[in-house]
Amino acid sequence: MPRSTCLPMAILPAFCAFPALAQETPYELPPIFVSVHHWDELASQAATSATVLTPQDRDGTPKRDLQAITDRSANVVFQRANSGERLVVRGISAFDNALADPVGYRVNGVSLPLGTLQLPHFFAADQVTLLKGPQGTTIGRNSEAGLLSYDTLAPGSLDGWQAEIGVNGSDVGASPLGANGSLLYSGWLNDDVALTFGAEVAGDQGVITDPATGADDGGKSERLTAVFGVQWALENGASLRLTSVAEHEDLNKEQFRYVSGPLATGRFQSSYGDPSSETRDMSVTALEYSQSFDGFDLTAITGFTTFNRDFTLDFDSSRLPLGVTTLDLEDRMLSQEIRLTSPEGAGPLKWSAGVHVYRQKTDVAFTLGALSTDRQTEITQSGLGLYGFGEYAVNDRLRLGAGVRLDWTESDATQQLTTMAGSRRYEGSQSDLTVLPKLTAAYDVTPDTILYGTLARGYLPGGYNYAFASDAGSLTYDLEYSWSFETGVKKDFASGAALRLAGFYTRVDDKQIAETIPGAAQRISNAAEAETYGIEAEASAPLGQGWSVRATAGWQKARATSFETTVFDSGTGGLRPVDYSGNALPLAPETTYGLALSYDGRNGWSGEIALNGSGNYYFDPGNTIEQDGYHAVDVSLSRQFDKGKLTVWATNLFDEEYYASAANTVRGTVVEDGAARRFGVNYRMEW
């Protein structure tokens, strides 16, 4: 039996054991709250799948990105690759290099327009929450597959200082040591003013060598993340909070290698003719005012986001002198949200209503040196969203919810294309009004068991083809729509064990895809339809004496139901039609699984060993490049002292080999190797 099938089956006994664990000594878990419809509710009572990462969950792990929450959530894949990062939830993702993401992101209540690329690392994070399924009724655009919310520590929450230092390295490929360090303060300056500020630096020296030159810094990265927050307690119970998260990254991008053809190299070896690097700068600033009145609570959030991305890449990832590809992207967005919500404990009806407006400006310069083409694109976007949602408790057990959002977007773009044949300028514009309804139902079978169902519509906005358009007709593409249904059960046991089961179905219409067209160009069209369906389980339980276990398992089918396009034929040098209908969607494994055993004793020792993996999946819509199923094991061991905590850790302990990305080219198949085994030591102090 294939390993990718054996391992998920081996995890099944862990789920079967949870009812037995309910008979153990009662154990009280700290409550975990989520905000699905702009009011706080217990995650165990919310009518949606929610994966929550608390500060305690992140304690002892070196992971500061989306991999930390992917390890705890079924049917979710995080791709960290040369072209960028993406989170694939239940098989739904965007085309490569898209400027919009089907997973929405909010940092301190402010939506990020560019998705995963714009998300800062989880430094000074209070809670990270992933809600699965469309969240557009209350959130709006770019939340077709789900929503990830990241909140930094509230000012005043630590009442002191926290510092951390560490070193890390790898015994695979090149092996210079990297380092990290952070300093964080949070406390009350007086009875009315609280403050948070801090910074984290992290460096990874990379594991990729160049066999031609001996360089050993392929994949090197350096990062600086800073947070700031101040909160004022005002008269009449009102509060004003200003928060800001900023990040700078320098990345070495010499990471692709050939695995076939005359340019093939070994694992963690690449040979580039031109230096390849990237710089990113981002910030998210939020000014939040809140006050309670008779009959409702008022919240107003003003947001400002910035994002700059500059890269230079070797055109074909080889030593051939074919020139470089460059990108210079600058994005700015100003947003304002005003919402009213029902006060806590206000009776059987909970409700929220609000308005959200934004103005976004994006400038992109994209140059293909090998093809002597340069595209200068300017995009302006404006949006207005009006939304409302209400949930009514029919009786002590049954709750019914309904809501709708009207999302209006308007945008304009101009592109200047310069080639060896000359220069031309063309324009595009879009204006759309989208209706996003949502229905929910939750039934309390017992005080600790609920059945729920959710039906919602999601969408991904249309946009502009900044990289490969050749005229006004290939510049724009339209909206993508979906309908999603989810049903599930949530069960909490007196022992502290918890079990979550869910089934889902999503149909995607007018799916955005990239099509090859004559003239070495691409057109983004809405020529595909797709569906995904599956089941998933997440469970956790205390085992006694400080031991606990958690497990996740997911199965899904993610297929293109209609997908006819054209591809380049290397034999004829032209295009040929293909039919990808029935093919698996990229980065959508049929199975994902995880199992972790943790210890947190009163003797000062703690630790965890965790296994996470997936079944086979494809990198391309043609299903020509397949990643075999794989799993990785992470371990950590910590010792608590009076004023500090020492942690020794390792990720991908057995150095499982896999690819982070792969693509076919005329010179062979190029891949990017997945993360190698890494190990490190961290020491954290508090005072």
What is the alpha-carbon Rg in Å?
Answer: 25 Å
Helix content: under 10%
Low-confidence segments, ≥5 residues, pLDDT <50? 1-5, 18-27
Overall number of strands: 39
Measured distance between first and last alpha carbons:
53 Å
Summed over residues and divided by their number, the pLDDT gives a mean of: 91
The class by helix and strand makeup works out as: mainly beta
What is the gist of this entry?
With 687 residues, this protein is mainly beta. 5% of the residues lie in helices and 61% in strands. It has a 22-stranded antiparallel beta barrel. Strands 3-8-9-6-7 form a five-stranded mixed beta sheet. A three-stranded antiparallel beta sheet has the order 15-38-37, with no helix packed on it.
Write up this protein.
- This protein is mainly β and 687 residues long.
- The protein has six helices and 39 strands.
- It has a 22-stranded antiparallel β-barrel.
Keyword list:
22-stranded antiparallel barrel; 687 residues; mainly beta
List the helices and strands and how they pair.
Elements lengths: L2 H14 L1 H4 L11 E3 L4 E3 L7 E4 L1 H4 L8 H4 L5 E6 L2 E6 L13 E5 L2 E2 L13 E8 L3 H4 L6 E7 L7 E10 L8 E11 L4 E12 L16 E13 L5 E14 L3 E3 L18 E17 L2 E19 L9 E18 L7 E20 L4 E21 L4 E22 L2 E25 L2 E12 L2 E2 L7 H4 E2 L2 E13 L5 E20 L3 E24 L2 E23 L4 E6 L11 E10 L4 E10 L2 E2 L7 E2 L2 E11 L3 E8 L7 E7 L2 E6 L4 E9 L1
Parallel strand pairs: 6-9
Antiparallel strand pairs: 1-2, 3-8, 4-5, 6-7, 8-9, 10-11, 10-39, 11-12, 12-13, 13-14, 14-16, 15-38, 16-17, 17-18, 18-19, 19-20, 20-21, 21-22, 22-23, 23-26, 24-25, 26-27, 27-28, 28-29, 29-30, 29-31, 31-32, 32-35, 33-34, 35-36, 36-39, 37-38
